[in-house]
Amino acid sequence: MNIRILNESDAQQYQELRLTGLKTNPEAFGSTYERESKFSLETVIDRIRPTSDKFVLGAFNEFGLLHGIVALVRETGMKTTHKANVFGMYISKEKRGKGIGKTLMYELIEIARKIEGLEQLKLSVVSDNEPAKKLYNSIGFKTYGIEPNALKFIGEYYDEDLMVFKL
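Structure (tokenized):
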């Protein structure tokens, strides 16, 4: 797998994989397929365009096909710029269990360590998503709380574990 920060030329592949994730595991994301399927390519390009405080990593196979994504966005508040949020992790179904998620997260952490003043990463994960929780724990994320009813989708509630990683 080739891991790198996405750029605007990756927007179409990113959007296709993101929409697949929203369809396949709708309970795992704060957004919905219905909402994001209406995004223009320009909106997607803006979303993935890297800056000094945000980026989306992609995992590409040897043929250049995108199979995994994860994003980092630094907080902007005067008292919270030492933190960044990790979100949107998704690995295509056929590539799960092959270490791609772990590789993406390790690369994300390495890039995050180079961002001046950044001290910790936060993420939330649906509480019954055991494979994702196992991954994050194996990397060193620690659960610091649980938000009951964090997400509501088609009348069903999902709790989320809140996790943190000290850089």
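The CA atoms of residues 124 and 162 lie 5 Å apart. The domain at 2-166 is CATH 3.40.630.30 (Aminopeptidase).
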